[in-house]
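Request from the bench team (R.T.):
"We need a structural guess for the complex before ordering more nicotinamide-adenine-dinucleotide. Sequence and SMILES attached. Just send the tokens back."

Command: build protein-nicotinamide-adenine-dinucleotide structure.
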Amino acid sequence: MTEMYANQTVVVTGTAGFVGSHLTDGLLANGARVIGVDNFLTGRASNLEHLKENPNFTFIESDVTLPTINYLTDQPKIDAIFHLASPASPPRYQEHPVETYLVNSYATHQLLQYIKNVHPRAKFIFASTSEVYGEPHEHPQKEGYWGNVNPNGVRSCYDEAKRLGETICGVHQRDFNLDVRIMRIFNTYGPRMDPRDGRVIPQFITQALAHQPYTIYGDGSQTRSYCYVNDLVDGILKFGSMLGLSGITVNLGNPGEYAVKQTAEIIHQLVHPNTQPEFEFRTLPGDDPTRRQPDITLAIDKLGWQPTIDFRTGIKHTLEYFQELATY
Ligand SMILES: NC(=O)c1ccc[n+]([C@@H]2O[C@H](COP(=O)([O-])OP(=O)(O)OC[C@H]3O[C@@H](n4cnc5c(N)ncnc54)[C@H](O)[C@@H]3O)[C@@H](O)[C@H]2O)c1
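Reply to R.T.: structure attached below.
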């Protein structure tokens, strides 16, 4: 097997989070030495437990909105920084709005200034989001679509901060000639998601396992596209390692589209086959997007990547993780 990151030193911010911990595993498996940084705002130490004895993994507990030099003090060599630190679920970022806009904007600036001043040959890969498309007028969403986002609503501490993060990336790529790449991640799910973080998949799985009705906001006809985390990490690893991708923004997600109510029905059938699900309908929160589906043509063309794990298979793996958690 070729190791995409052999002999490289890579920093992952948000390493204790859901995606960050899987990305850290993927980088280590591909030969990297990983420096993971996290302040446990929404991440969990248990996500890194298996790496405790790994000599190629170093953990630094720090807030990445601090000047980067404060915590990455004397690193002689850094080949890439993946900036994933940020609350990602609406309840979590609404609970931490200031931390959310700072980590996506000011921390992005701090990290890029550090690269510019200390490691100008390092790549910077920013975890943006499908939320930059807001309530889209285009469907599915291509990277060239600029979005339709409320600048001052209940989700804007996240959406607009990611958009500003993208601006900061663009400035450093164009004006300071750094290798900066932006990935717009669409809904991702899998083991190590926090069961309490309020995202749709953990919420429905938790409710299925507890024999509770499924909470549906609105009538549940709004759609989402769900990508299994292993697929996403494969895409991120390729995007971060291939040459000639500076300045590129790419959608990473699974185009399979499901209505939210249908999502609950599928999970219900896997957990309680041959029974009927019960629903509890609630008012749709502000600025909830009605449709979400990535156009991944660019990822297919540039990276030769597309998801391979179908929704039911991914949900079965995720269920196993949640069932294990429930037995502790
Ligand atoms: N999971 C998804 O479906 C999804 C979709 C789109 C974009 N993303 C993006 O991917 C990234 C990871 O998302 P996730 O689902 O793993 O979320 P997560 O909440 O599980 O992980 C985020 C991690 O960042 C850490 N963090 C937050 N602020 C920090 C700070 N100031 N300093 C240091 N660490 C900090 C948290 O403690 C946590 O460990 C985020 O940037 C998110 O916006 C995720």
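Two things stood out. The chain is about 40% helix and 15% strand. Residues 13-14, 16-20, 37-43, 63-65, 84-88, 99, 103, 107, 127, 129, 185, 187-188 surround nicotinamide-adenine-dinucleotide (CB under 6 Å).
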